[in-house]
Fold each of these.
Amino acid sequence: MGKGCTTVTKYFLFLFNLLFFVFGALIMGFGLWVLFDKESFIAVLQESSDTVKVASYILIGVGSLSMAMGFFGCIGAIYEIRCLLGLYFTCLLLIFIAQVTAAVLIYIQRDPLKHEMSIIIKGMIVNYTGQNKTTEHAWDFIQRTIKCCGWTGPGNWSENALIKNSTQNLYSCSCRNDTLPGTDVKEFGLCENLSPQLPVYETGCITSVEKWLLDNCGIILGICVGVAIVELLGMILSMCLCKSVVQEDYTKVPKY
């Protein structure tokens, strides 16, 4: 490889690792958001299942590793240090294999994961009191924002312990459809309605979540493919530069 080509490869690899460092910071930030967020669908799952917490720790770990790899990759590229370039290639290959394995496992286990999520949400609805400021208020926020009621539909709320044992006609306040006549809109808790017809949304949240996933499937898939291409490009560039460094070292050996 010529000197000019080596220089171009070196700076391309430097820029690539700079982007990799930024992506790592974003992944770590997303993991921290999943771990500490208290006002989204994630918070509802996190309170009832250790799976989400484990996933957040994995994201934080992968993000931190990506940032470290980006830093050492930049140093290895600029100073042409073969051991750092080789270490960078190995770590990038391991991350690529881990990502492919995780994607395959999620695809294979999608039905059990969906079932587990359904059990968690329905259990939370049954035990809902409106006093829990983490999971219950997060679920209220979801129902208000997505404009849905219950997991599969508003009928899920008929299983709620307080509603079932009350003589009043109660419903989840966050299910309130403000386009229908009824009592004042409240953000959380249980509300009373005087008429038998409840002024709530008729669509279950599972339908809205699945619709969102279908609408954004192309974007999600595109991001995954883009990350995979970037990782493959990084491996190719690091090997090309590492090979050129080896060749240049051999040319410097005096001949007798």
Amino acid sequence: MTFDVRRFDIYRKVPKDLTQPTYTGAFMVGLDIQDEMGRHEVGHIENSMKVPLNNGYGCRFEGEFTINKVPGNFHVSTHGATAQPQNPDMTHIIHKLAFGEKLQVHNVQGAFNALGGANRLESNALASHDYILKIVPTVYEDLSGRQRFSYQYTVANKEYVAYSHTGRIIPAIWFRYDLSPITVKYTERRQPLYRFITTICAIIGGTFTVAGIIDSCIFTASEAWKKIQLGKLS
């Protein structure tokens, strides 16, 4: 399964004075990948790019990588850095986070980029962010019978500052995922001719029925008016 993360911005606050370290965010932040098959990569860099923002006080992370179809997680952190910043800032904006092939179909409105637009810039700078993703396999079959496969996902999140017996734990942005046993399938079908004919007949029949009711009302009103004029209305 291919995971695609694009335009993921992470910011670090400006130092209060010159005694604080000024590590550049783009070089401190890295991507780690883990799953239940034993995979554990620290500082994954293949097909990824980190672009400095705000004069080095933040970075934009863009990348695409493959994950196994088993529960696991990937997280953005400074775990792979040789020197840890004293005051890391994990506030961020997620522009795009998607799994699998992109479905460009106008009549399919799904949660293929459920985290797109998530803004955590006002969060606690020292907090970790935990996104729980439930990935739903999705199949789209067009009129020719060709199938395309993608993935939607639902998300829940929490924010917390973690501590251990040694002190505060280095914050990170976690994406913990699991696959749903249910598959969503969209099938494109052309409307059969008999349904079109039935619809036309229903419209014509309804038009005649409404016209008959209006005609009956007009006729009744006309007869009543005639009786009034003749003075025979009882």
Amino acid sequence: MASSSYFIRPATVEDVATYEKAADQVKATPELYRKNLFETPYAHTLLAFAGSPDAPGKAIGLAMYFFNFSTWTGKPGLYLEDLFVDPTYRGKGVGKALFAELGKVAEEKDCARIDWQVLKWNQPSIDFYEKTLGATAMSEWMGMRLEGAQIQNLRKFRSTSS
């Protein structure tokens, strides 16, 4: 989807490395992006740019996603890992356009659903998802996570034959 003020295309490794400016807690590096997004594509990224394809400007929005599988539907799903729109471009249709592209990908891959998480305090985003997109809050689910040493701790449950 394109407009006179922005356009969307798949990201390159250089795009993602430039867009994801490293904050102190971020562990991602351009090398990790290259390896895990482009050499072995565990995830895919769409970027929205100011300008036009012929005269692109700066990146103003990002949607990073990957595919999962539902035992309930027997179909793949699209999981939106990260969505960001530059605050100066919010309310101008960039978020809708990114979701439109995600919907196109989901239809092409016969996905049963698109899932993502939103922080409970982020009411403007929750309102956008529910009121504009028609999304349903999954309040009966609670996210869980294992990281680093917690993953390594799972070794104690391995079978000796593994």
